[in-house]
TrEMBL record:
Enzyme Commission designation: 2.7.1.24
Location relative to the cell: Cytoplasm
Protein's UniProt name: Dephospho-CoA kinase
Organism (species): Dyadobacter fermentans
Sample GO molecular function, one term: dephospho-CoA kinase activity
Similarity field: Belongs to the CoaE family.
Pathway of action: Cofactor biosynthesis; coenzyme A biosynthesis; CoA from (R)-pantothenate: step 5/5
EC top class, as a word: transferase
Keyword Cytoplasm: yes
Major site of localization recorded for this protein: cytoplasm
PROSITE patterns attached to this UniProt entry: DPCK (PS51219)
Cited CDD domains: DPCK
Record carries keyword Nucleotide-binding: yes
Length: 203
């Protein structure tokens, strides 16, 4: 059976990838929000829980057993090797979960996966095409300061640890410009038209 096309949407912190995905959602496209799903899995998958505790200690979960994202963020966003190890625990589970989600949504005209980290289209069981959302760093910092309780220093540390805009552009099949001067909705509508015309996935 042909599976629907799977489009990846990625971008740095505060670039507006969730905003872009909300627009696809308005067009009735199902979205897999990998970062929040990863957190749900980290709370609910016993194998991940055991490995995360082994990597980061008991503090990775609070007294009620809930994933302590504040603590984990403070550990991994200033320590790249540790972030890589955390990713290596969580990613295979997220990939399996994505596949199951794609199968459950096999009737959709196409599907979108939003994730902070993404492989090039066609690689590592990845997506069929990658949309990179871009915005200038200072605008991203201002947007996150308005959205989150996160200290500015931590936002900048996250930006430092994430892949650079240049490397993201290398994996981009499409770029959405989300700076103050560009309109987002026409860009998403244009992509929607293109994706509706593409053939189903050959994964
Ligand atoms: C580190 C954690 C606890 C931080 O949670 P918190 O709620 O404080 O922040 P949030 O999830 O909103 O992330 C903050 C920013 O960092 C980005 N980000 C999240 N995980 C990663 C990562 N592994 N690598 C690079 N950037 C990341 C997010 O997209 C966002 O831009 C959490 O993000 C996590 O568990 N990440 C690892 C899971 C993962 O690999 N997610 C990526 C997609 S599968
Ligand atoms: N074009 C825009 N105009 C005004 N505000 C915007 C625009 N795009 C995004 N924002 C706001 O900026 C903030 C960051 O956007 P969004 O949450 O979509 O980014 P993100 O890339 O998903 O971030 P994260 O990586 O942290 O999940 C949000 O509060 C959002 O409402």
């Amino acid at each position: 059976m042909d599976l629907p096309l799977l489009i990846g949407v990625t971008g740095g912190i505060g670039s507006g990838k969730s905003m872009v995905c909300r627009l696809f959602e308005c067009l009735d496209i199902p979205i897999y929000y990998a970062d929040s799903r990863a957190k749900w899995l980290t709370n609910n998958d016993p194998e991940i829980r055991a490995k995360v505790v082994a990597l980061l200690g008991q503090e990775a979960y609070d007294n009620d057993g809930v994933y302590n994202t504040r603590f984990v963020a403070s550990c991994v966003f200033k320590n790249e090797p540790l972030l890589k190890e955390l990713n290596a625990i969580i990613h295979p589970v997220v990939l399996r979960d994505t596949k199951a989600w794609v199968t459950r949504n096999a009737g959709a005209s196409y599907l979108v996966k939003e994730a902070a980290i993404m492989a090039k289209a066609g690689q590592a069981n990845a997506v069929d095409a990658v949309v990179v959302v871009e915005a200038p760093v200072e605008l991203r910092v201002q947007r996150i300061l308005q959205r989150d309780q996160r200290p500015e220093q931590e936002i900048r540390a996250i930006i430092e640890r994430q892949v650079s805009d240049e490397s993201r552009r290398e994996i981009a099949d499409y770029i959405v410009n989300n700076d103050d001067a560009s309109e987002l909705i026409p860009q998403v509508l244009h992509l929607h038209e293109l994706f509706l015309k593409r053939k189903p996935s050959e994964r």
